[in-house]
């Protein structure tokens, strides 16, 4: 008789979706009947324009909102992703005040609605963000998800999602480059796979370079040929965009506008866009240099973003890398597909093996030290999640607290880095300078959110902060930051040296002062020598000239050494005398 198999009843597993929350378009995908499906709207369109319009009685998202943009700009919002986490501005609409988080939440809600038509039990999502998004931008994206009523399983970097969509995690190791040219932005990321784990090695890009710029080129091309300059620019832009998209399929297109008609050939179009493609390839060059990786070492090039449909662009990319890029998947869907795969993995779907995905910190993180120097604790391009600690001590006697200044950036001086937050560690017992042991720990979780904590080890007093600062960080500013650091390396080194020497001089100055106060019995001559030394240090510090300060420290050091030797002898002599007396007394007792 066959044995009955008894299975434990399993709770119905809830499904999670993948969302590509894009600047121009947003999409939602999920794992359904053993494949990843990108969900369509009632017109069979996958791409939801990331446009939201507020009306007194309802909110429109997508095509309807986009169509109203020219007629109702006051209540209609496009490209809100550019503002999320960067601006707390509120916009006045007929439906009241709204901010970037609320507007983004509307887009998420529209996508959720689409997904819930398939499975109303959906409450979790993986949402993609650009690799360069900082804490504030990631926090704001999470806040939008919360507002939309969906739990974020993870924020996933867009390039990592694209690599996942192509199954590049199935390989054992190798480096791939993700080239993403969307509506308004260009992003390039280098990913390294080792043992099924992705790391973002480096990112670069241009936040003001995308399909919209190509539309503008076509608009200008038409304007140069039009007999009149009195035109409705918005209408012309729509035509330009259509012409551009046509040229991904046809060798030429005819543009008809206000009674005028002109033929734009593919050859002419390619010439128009050539400089823009050059710019993207220069950025690719830069990211390779940044990561010190040769073109030849790249195993795969992945194309992402609607603009990479243009054939000429594909050819140029191929010529540059010396290999055909991966283009099998729809370039505007790959990110959503990857997000859905990751969502499946995280919600425990057995179809996908459990890949751990790593991303990277775009800019170094650290704290400000005495003297205004920036001490880096987590270095740029460290894979996340990450944690690092460093020990510090107090600078002044009887210090019972200290103020920590959290920084982001590559420069040597705090003032040249970006300030993320200030927080206090206070209430530890007074002790001499240098005695306290303060351990500062930086933690970044897998969503790239930062937590900084400081603990005074002897007393156990602790303080911690989650960074929610509105850091104005985008791809451009990351590059700025890095280039800045390289350009200013020499100056920075000098500035750092100056800072260190100033601190040394200041400490010497303080210790002399202490001696002057404590040792009241000093001979006038000794006292005068110390006062002079103090003066010499003050003058040198005031001059802010590195050489002067170094010289002054040297001279004063000699003086202090002499003084210490002499003083020590005196103390020693005193102690010896005392001892002799005690000994004698002892003998007599
Ligand atoms: P984002 O990630 O910024 O939301 P997308 O990846 O959706 O952007 O890319 C949008 C851009 O791709 C737009 O400029 C659009 O005109 C362009 N695009 C879409 N389809 C095509 C096509 N067939 N040929 C050329 N460009 C296209
Ligand atoms: Mg995109």
Number of helices: 13
Structural class: alpha+beta
**β-strand amount:** 25-35%
Our count of domains comes out at 3
Low-confidence region ranges: 1-12, 354-358, 468-472, 575-589
Helix content: 25-40%
CATH fold annotation of the largest domain = Nucleotidyltransferase, domain 5
- Rounded mean pLDDT is 85
The beta-strand count equals: 27
Assigned CATH architecture of the largest domain: 2-Layer Sandwich
Provide a descriptive summary of the structure in words.
The protein is an alpha+beta fold and 589 residues long. It has 3 domains: 16-359, Nucleotidyltransferase, domain 5 (2-Layer Sandwich); 365-486, Sandwich (Substrate Binding Domain Of DNAk, Chain A, domain 1); 489-576, Substrate Binding Domain Of Dnak, Chain:A, Domain 2 (Up-down Bundle). It is 39% helix and 26% strand. It has 13 helices and 27 strands. It has helices at residues 63-67, 100-116, 135-148, 158-165, 211-225, 233-246, 266-290, 311-321, 334-346, 475-487, 489-518, 524-543, 546-588, and strands spanning 16-21, 25-32, 35-38, 48-49, 51-54, 59-61, 76-78, 91-93, 96-98, 124-129, 151-157, 173-181, 186-194, 197-206, 252-257, 260-265, 298-304, 359-360, 365-368, 374-378, 383-384, 386-392, 401-408, 418-426, 438-444, 450-456, 461-466. Strands 1, 2, 3, 4, 10 and 11 form a 6-stranded mixed β-sheet that branches. Strands 14-13-12-17 form a 4-stranded mixed β-sheet, with helices on both faces. A 4-stranded antiparallel β-sheet has the order 20-19-23-24, with no helix packed on it. A hairpin with a 4-residue loop joins strand 5 and strand 6. Helix 7 (266-290) packs parallel to helix 8 (311-321). The longest helix has 43 residues, at 546-588. It starts with 15 loop residues before the first strand and ends with a helix. Bound molecules: adenosine-5'-diphosphate and magnesium ion (MG). The site of adenosine-5'-diphosphate (ADP) has 21 residues, from helix 5 and helix 6.
